[in-house]
Amino acid sequence: MKRRLPDPVEAVEVTPDLERRAERAERWRGFRLAVPAYVYLIVLFAVPLVLVGVYSFASRSRTGQPLLHDWNLDSVKRLADSAFLQIAWRSILLALLTTIICLVVAYPFSYYIATRSERTRNVLLVFVMIPFWSNFLVRTYAWKVLLGADGIFTRIGEALGLWGQLLFTMPAVLIGLIYGFLPFMVLPLYASIERLDWSLVEAARDLYATGPKAFRRVTLPLSRPGIIAGSILVFIPSLGAYVTPDILGGAKTTLLGNYIVNQFLAARNWPLGSSISMAIMIVMLLATVLYFRSGGRTL
Amino acid sequence: MTEAAVSLSSVVKRFGDVVAVDDVDLEIEDGEFFSLLGPSGCGKTTTLRMIAGLEYPTEGSIRIYGEEMGLRPPNKRPVNTVFQSYALFPHMTVADNIAFGLQMQKVAPAEIVERVANAIDLVRLTGKGDRRPGQLSGGQQQRVALARALVNRPKVLLLDEPLGALDLKLRQAMQLELKDLQARVGITFVYVTHDQEEALTMSDRIGVMSDGRLLQIGRPDHIYEKPANRFVAEFIGETNFIEGTVAGPGVVTLPDGSTVRAGTHSAVGTPVTLTLRPEKILLEAAGTAPGDWNTMEGTVKRRMYYGDSLYYEIDFGYTVVDARQENRPRIQRFSVGDRVTVLFDPAAAEALTE
Question: What is the CATH code of the structural domain delimited by A77-293?
Answer without folding.
Answer: 1.10.3720.10
